[in-house]
Design brief:
- The structure holds two protein chains of two kinds.
- In chain A, the strands form two sheets. In chain A, strands 2, 4, 5, 9, 10 and 11 form a six-stranded mixed β-sheet that branches.
- Chain A starts with a strand and ends with a strand.
- In chain A, 0% of the residues lie in helices and 57% in strands.
- Chain A has no helices and eleven strands.
- Chain A is globular, with a radius of gyration of 13 Å.
- Chain B is mainly β.
- Helix content of chain B is 0%, strand content 56%.
- In chain B, the strands form two sheets. In chain B, strands 2, 4, 5, 6, 9, 10 and 11 form a seven-stranded mixed β-sheet that branches. In chain B, strands 1-3-8-7 form a four-stranded antiparallel β-sheet, with no helix packed on it.
- The radius of gyration of chain B is 13 Å and the shape is globular.
- The chains are: A mainly beta, B mainly beta.
């Protein structure tokens, strides 16, 4: 069983709308959690990183939250743009290991 | 800016062929990684290297080998390609384990 579960698998929204992607993990001990954005045909690029003590972190229209007690993270995208169409991957770090979620495929339509 | 380059964007090989995938990074990173990415499975670590000539198996090393003769270059080798190795292969590098990984653009390999 994957130690990092993301939901939904895919999502279609209209341009300008908000959306929230979920990441639940069972990785322990937890070190940090990153959200990556992967455009089609490209490698993933880091959006945010959160450590145990951080609850929320923003990067422009992207806001990540972390609840280390319930082992849940979310990525909220505000006022979506066509360029937000991509896969979003949650990555949780143990001490010496990285665990990847399967990703959420987001499509933003005009 | 960190740059990670991969030798090919697309490759088509026949079953049984030996396949080399090359990755080069220009930031003097210690760590380099090879992943494969399949729909619904996410990225799975094949091998990683934390120093020149050093390598560690990842989660799915079977059917693969790696070579790191120089710090900036990390090669993935499929000794005898099989159809179940058709996948997207991503190379990454990082300064230290756990630090941000910088990914290359990927190589989409098709084995027929």
């Amino acid at each position: 069983k994957n130690q990092v579960e993301q939901s939904p698998q895919s999502l279609i929204i209209l341009e300008g709308k908000n959306c929230t992607l979920q990441c639940n993990y069972t990785v322990s001990p937890f070190s940090n959690l990153r959200w990556y954005k992967q455009d089609t045909g490209r490698g993933p690029v880091s959006l945010t990183i959160m450590t145990f003590s951080e609850n929320t972190k923003s990067n422009g229209r992207y806001t990540a939250t972390l609840d280390a007690d319930t082992k849940q993270s979310s990525l909220h995208i505000t006022a979506s743009q066509l360029s937000d169409s991509a896969s979003y991957i949650c990555v949780v770090r143990e001490i010496n290991d990285m665990r990847f979620g399967a990703g959420t495929r987001l499509t933003v339509k005009p | 800016d960190v740059k990670v380059t991969q030798s090919s964007r697309y490759l088509v090989k026949r079953t049984g062929e030996k396949v080399f995938l090359e990755c080069v990074q220009d930031m003097d990173h210690e760590n380099m990684f090879w992943y494969r990415q399949d729909p619904g499975l996410g990225l799975r670590l094949i091998y990683f290297s934390y120093d020149v000539k050093m390598k560690e198996k990842g989660d799915i090393p079977e059917g693969y080998s790696v070579s790191r003769e120089k710090k900036e270059r990390f090669s993935l080798i499929l000794e005898s390609a099989s159809t179940n190795q058709t996948s997207m292969y991503l190379c990454a590098s990082s300064f230290l384990v756990g630090y941000e990984q910088y990914f290359g653009p990927g190589t989409r390999l098709t084995v027929t």
